[in-house]
Structures are given as C-alpha cells and as structure tokens.
Amino acid sequence: MKRLMLISCSGSKNPTSGMLPAIERYIGGVYKSIKKARREGYWPAETDILIISAKYGLISEDTPIEMYEQKMTRDRAVELQKEVSSNLDVLLQERNYNQIFLNLGSIYMQSIALSSEIDQARRTGIVQEAAGEIGMRLRQTKQWIEEQHEVNRKIPID
Fold this sequence. Notes:
The chain has six helices and seven strands; from the N terminus they run E-E-H-H-E-E-E-H-E-H-H-E-H. By secondary structure, the chain is α/β, with parallel strands linked by helices. The strands form two sheets. Strands 4-3-1-6-7 form a five-stranded mixed sheet. Strands 2-5 form a two-stranded antiparallel ribbon. It is globular, with a radius of gyration of 15 Å.
C-alpha cells in the first residue's frame, strides 16, 4: 500500500547553519512524531512525506533547505497556489497513492485549492484530513501513523 502524508512546514526549526533536509530542519510536533515513529520502528512502510513550505512551496522531506523565517499568510498561500497545486497534481498522477493523509491548517489548505488530483482523491475516498486546532490535528496524525503501521502488520507477505 502506497501512502502520502502531506504536512505543513513548522515555525520551530533546527537552527543549525547550512542546508539540512527539510525533515531535519523542521522540529515542530508533527515532525517529532514522525521521527519518533521511525526511531521506534512503527513508521508505516511505503509512506512518502511532502511538505508545504511558506518559503519553498511543495518540497519532499529530503529537500535541502536553509534556516529561514517566513510565516505562511493567506497572501503567500494564494501566491503559491498555482505552483503548489500543479506540482502536487503531477506527483499524484505519477505515484498513484492508495491513501493520502493531510495535516494542513486552513491557510496552508489554500495553497492546494487548485489541485484537481486532491479533489479527485477526495471523491474516491482515499483522503483523510486532520481537522481542528493544532493539538487535535497532531493527535489525529499520531493516530493515523499508528493505524497505518497496524495495517502494514496485518498484510500477509508472500
């Protein structure tokens, strides 16, 4: 089963100078949960992570980025909307995910508002979206990670 987790960047960042992979640069709650799941062996296999960055747009977790301070605003999300939605559509067409998990606040959701592939994925029922305030979305993200790991464990290996 191929999965995608689409998350926003984090205001909390690793201050190390130079370039770091995005997954290492961001250190907010969702990122801590991902790193813990990987470290403790319950990260679901075949799960890709894409990040919407206020500065860089849509990036993979491995994209090297520098330390920066740029907050996502509605204006910035609208400015990124065409590029982020288009890039996301290309990736979704190429990778054919079975499940997509979104943990994006309302402002970040604006940046994917033009994605026809996300709309299609919603219609087919493969999108799960974290909802509510940040703490609620974090709990839902942790729960999704754990559930997907359990699904992996139950799939027989030939």
